[in-house]
Amino acid sequence: MSEKPVRFGILGCASIARKISRAINRAPNASIQAIGSRSIDKASRFASENGFPASAAVYGSYEAVLDDPDVDAVYVPLPTSLHVKWAVLAAEKKKHILLEKPVALNVSELDVILQACESNGVQYMDATMWMHHPRTAQMREFLSDPQRFGQLKSVHSIFCYNPGPDFLINDIRIKPDLDGLGCLGDAGWYCIRAILWAADYQLPERVTALPNPEFNESGVILSCGASLSWTDGKIATFYCSFLTNLTMDLTCAGTNGYLHVHDFVIPFQEKVASFYGASNSRWVNFGCEPTPTKHKVATDLPHEAIMVREFARLVASIEGNGLEPEKKWPIISRKTQLVVDAVKASIDRAFEPVEVGNY
Q1: What string of DSSP letters covers 8-38?
Q2: Residue ranges of domains in the chain
Q3: Which of 47, 179, 239, 315 is most enclosed, with most CB atoms within 10 A?
C-alpha cells in the first residue's frame, strides 16, 4: 500500500470536484479509482470531461463507490446537508475522508462525523486548500518571528465574489435545504480559518456578528461579517459575500510587523504566490521605511494537488505502516466549525455577543 497510489472515489459531480479530480491526477501518490452520481450518465460524462483514467469505475450511486473494495479514500463534495450521512457511512466502510467545506451544518453534526472517523481508524481532512500551499508555511515563519513580527494584535480577512444572477437563483449554496449556511459556510469558512491560523488556532473568547447581513428570500445568508476577541487583547474581523467583487485579502498586524496577502484563498497565479511583510516600520519625512517586502513563493504543483498529496501520504502511513490517523486536521476543523456556529448564533440573536467556549 505504501508504494502504491492511494485510490480515490469521488461522491458526486459538483463543480469543485473538477478541480480536485485534476489535483488527484496530478498528485504523484494518488489516483482516481471511481466516481458515483445519482445518474450514471452524469457520472460517465463527468469522468470523460475531466480526464479520468480508462480504468476508473463509474457508478450510478454513492453507495457503489463506498462498496468498491479498490477504493481507499473518498472525496466528498456533496451539499453540506448530506455530509453527516455520507461521511459517516464512508468511515464505517473504512474509507478515509477528504471532506469539502463547510464540513457540516453545525458542530454537533461534525462531532458525529469525527467520532465515526476515530472509531473506524480512518484519516479525516477538510478540503481547505490554501493551507497546503508552500506560501502558507513561509507566512507562518514570518508570523512566528518575534523580531520581524512580534506579538499578534489583530487580523482582518475578507473573501467575497459576485458569481452573478444565475448562481443566486440556482446554486446549491443558496438553497436552505442543501447548504443552509450560505455565504457564511462557503466563503466565511475561509475567513474564519485564516483568522484561527494566524492566531495559532487559539479560539476567541467572544464572537459578535456585525449588523446588516444580507439574506435571500429563503433566509440564506448572502453576506455577513463578525468581530472576534481574545482574552489577551487580540481582535479580528472578517467579511464574506456573494454580492461583492472578488476579494481575498488577509492582513495580520503585530507589535513589530505586519503581513498582507491579496489572494490567500486561491493564488492569482498557479505556479507562484506572493505575500507582503514589513518589520519595524517608521514614518520618515513623507513616507515610511522600510517599505514592505514582497516575498514570492514558487510551487510545481497547485495547492489542491499538494493537499491531495499530503492527504494520500497520511492514508498510506496508516494503511502501509500501521500509524494512527493525524489528529491535527479534525481539531482544526472543529475549531473552525465552532466559530462558524457562534457567528450564526450571533446573527440569529440580533447580533448579541456569543461566548465561544460556552456554545
Answers
A1: EEEES--THHHHHHHHHHHSTTEEEEEEE-S
A2: 6-128, 130-303+337-358
A3: 315
Class at the top of the CATH hierarchy for domain 130-303+337-358: alpha beta
pTM given for the model:
0.96
Q: Show Cβ contacts of residue 212 under 8 Å, excluding neighbours closer than 6 positions.
A: none
* 39 contacts 356 by C-beta, under 8 angstroms: no
Closest C-alpha to 318, from 77, 73, 90: 73
Beta bridge partners of 159: 240, 248
Query: pLDDT per residue over 110-162, tens digit each?
Result: 999 999 999 999 999 999 999 999 999 999 999 999 999 999 999 999 999 99
Cell of 232: 489577551
Report d(CA 135, CA 275) in Å as an integer.
8
- The residues annotated as belonging to the active site are 101
Residue 316 cell numbers, joined: 498510506
E strands, 60-145, are: 73-76, 96-99, 124-126
**Which residues are within 8 A (CB) of 80 and not within 5 positions of it... i.e. 6 or more apart?**
102, 103, 104, 105, 178, 179, 180, 181, 185
Cα 198 from Cα 257, distance rounded (Å): 14
Q: Please tell me the distance from the alpha carbon of residue 73 to that of residue 332, in angstroms, as a whole number.
A: 20
Which segments of 64-169 are extended strands (E)? Answer: 73-76, 96-99, 124-126, 152-160
What CATH superfamily classification does 6-128 receive?
Answer: NAD(P)-binding Rossmann-like Domain (3.40.50.720)
CA-based nearest residue to 2, from 314, 343, 352, 345? 314
Question: All 3 cell numbers of residue 122?
Answer: 480512518
- On the question of pLDDT at 176 being above 90, the answer is yes
Sequence letter at residue 19: K
Instruction: Give 203-230 pLDDT, tens digit per residue.
Output: 999 999 999 999 999 999 999 999 999 9
Query: What's the gap between Cα 112 and its chain centre?
Result: 19
